[in-house]
Amino acid sequence: MRLKLAIQKSGRLYDGSLELLKECGIELPNGSKLKTEAYNFPMDILFLRDDDIPQYVLDGVADIGIVGENVLMESGKDILTVEKLGFGKCRLSLAIPKADEYNSAKDINGKKIATSYPVLLQKFLDKNKVTAEIHEISGSVEIAPGIGLADAVCDLVSSGSTLLMNGLKEVETVLKSEAVLVAQHNLGKEKQEWLDKFLFRIRAVKKAKHNKYVLLNAPNEKLQSIINLIPGMKSPTVLPLAEQGWSSVHSVVNDDDFWEVIEKLKKEGAQGILVIPIENMVI
Ligand code: PRT
Ligand code: ZN
Q1: Tens digits of per-residue pLDDT, 65-75?
Q2: pLDDT below 50 — which residues of the chain?
Q3: 90 lines ligand 1 (CB under 6 A)
Q4: Residue range 211-277 in CATH 3.40.640.10
Q5: For residue 117, what is the DSSP state?
Q6: Ligand number nearest to the C-alpha of 13
Q7: Tens of pLDDT along 134-158?
Q8: Which overall architecture, per CATH, does domain 90-177 show?
């Protein structure tokens, strides 16, 4: 038994997908392009066009895959979203020429919209009870208004600079997207077990990225208030320093309120605060 994972063969999700495998300790031969076998995990990697991944997973050519939610939802294929992966983040947005007025979705009534995402756009139009003409094109959607092909576009945006360069402004978010791990519904017992092991590693890696290991020195009389600030996973490690009246405190701090916590620690009298990245985190 080998679990077959489909990833994008080149493009925006390629590096992130390989990076994820590496962080999960899954080693691949260098420079493989069509199909490759992991050395130390029962997994074969198939390199495909991103648009083909949902269908291949549905057919069982691949058991699992890494694909953008935008592609998955546009495809409408009945496969499972197992986990959000935190990379390849973007949004599918409606954009119109900068000078055009916009108050609500009603303003696109009767307009011609260029997109590579006709299904998602139609759903958005239906939800907003708007009728517009969808003009499906496969690439360079952003130039459509400039060359008179459409009045508006519905395209993926990350930094927004492509829209800006083409004289367009974003007016609605149709979908927020990131790379996700997908799987077919019935993998069978053995493959499911290996998927669970893969998922266990992914979650440990993701968790570690959101946390940092913190070491600091604290005066003993302030120990309790410092411990309250960094409760960690169970409770912090406290070790006596060679200098009387001082302790070393080790704990884990979440990314979200990281700087706030560090400031409070300083205020409470913590010294020599060291912050170290965590590679894996299993709870
Ligand atoms: O060959 P294949 O079919 O596999 O690749 P592709 O050309 O269809 O896809 P690719 O590699 O461009 O994108 C793969 C996936 O990356 C997408 O399906 C999204 O899930 C995700 N992603 C994240 C993006 C972007 N960010 C993104 N910015 N996909 C495309 N873009 C494009 C967008 O279409 C526009 O042209 O980048 C431009 C906008 O970028 P900004 O930064 O200027 O806003
Ligand atoms: Zn594609």
Answers
A1: 999 999 999 99
A2: none
A3: yes
A4: no
A5: -
A6: 1
A7: 999 999 999 999 999 999 999 999 9
A8: 3-Layer(aba) Sandwich (3.40)
